[in-house]
């Protein structure tokens, strides 16, 4: 079992163990986070470093950005990990339930299209090709339909589940509308399923956050993306300098402001996470923020705790 798959099982067990005590609020001694499978490894690494420094316990679930906001706006968690900004309808539910929050960017991501290491024909994909593959009603089912020069190999698709912020972002960029996608693909909130599916199928294509590719690049290849200015690989450098467009995106944590006083250690953990966001991102293989961005997020946090 892969390290992230093992993490997911541990997270689920942790959340189940405390679930009976959640009710309409959170534990006063255990910090709870849930949400994006993309941001989950970042928050998990932050929690590990925080614990090693003598901090309190933090549990991290990976129910997807949408699933995380559902729990967060119901008052069940302290932190919601998100690979997109909160939607108006989610914010309205939070408001109805009296859940106030502060949004903090913690890293940047290069959303990555991956193929098997056995794929020896595809190295770059255009946004037009991605749209032809993923648009609602698409019947593209073979690589030679993507490009006539490609071989006659069945195309098997893997992607994010509908509760995922990655799904929302990808469909918006590629198909021009959030949530607009063909439905005949293997959808999952667990990116490890996509890793296993794509790596085990010569004709497979999938997408997820850059850190999952970084951890599995011995069995996967990342496709460069041509957004109109030529083929650009996903990387820390291209996400930071803006050349990997339009698939570079901000990653967030949302912190419930009432929990900053009610949950032991939460304020210190969040401050630690933001102050050390660059190191944590590098350790967890994310694209780190610049210091000016970190300073801006720290100021937002300090304003929220004033």
Report on the architecture of this protein.
The chain has 306 residues and is α/β, with parallel strands linked by helices. The protein folds into 2 domains: 162 residues, Periplasmic binding protein-like II (D-Maltodextrin-Binding Protein, domain 2), CATH 3.40.190; 130 residues, D-Maltodextrin-Binding Protein, domain 2, CATH 3.40.190. The protein is 42% helix and 20% strand. It has 14 helices and 13 strands. The strands form 3 sheets. It has a 5-stranded mixed sheet. The chain has a 5-stranded mixed sheet with strand order 8-7-9-5-10. Strands 6-11-12 form a 3-stranded mixed sheet. Helix 2 links the parallel strand 1 and strand 2. Helix 3 packs parallel to helix 4. The chain is elongated. 44% of the residues are buried. The N terminus is likely disordered.
Would you spell out the secondary-structure blueprint of this structure?
Elements: H1 3-19, E1 31-35, H2 40-52, E2 58-60, H3 65-73, E3 79-82, H4 88-96, E4 101-110, E5 112-116, E6 124-126, H5 127-134, H6 143-146, E7 156-160, H7 165-175, E8 186-188, H8 191-199, E9 204-208, H9 210-215, E10 220-222, E11 224-226, E12 231-232, H10 236-241, E13 248-256, H11 259-262, H12 266-275, H13 277-283, H14 291-305
Parallel strand pairs: 1-2, 1-3, 6-11, 7-8, 7-9
Antiparallel strand pairs: 3-13, 4-13, 5-9, 5-10, 11-12
Helix pairs in contact: 2-13, 3-4, 12-14
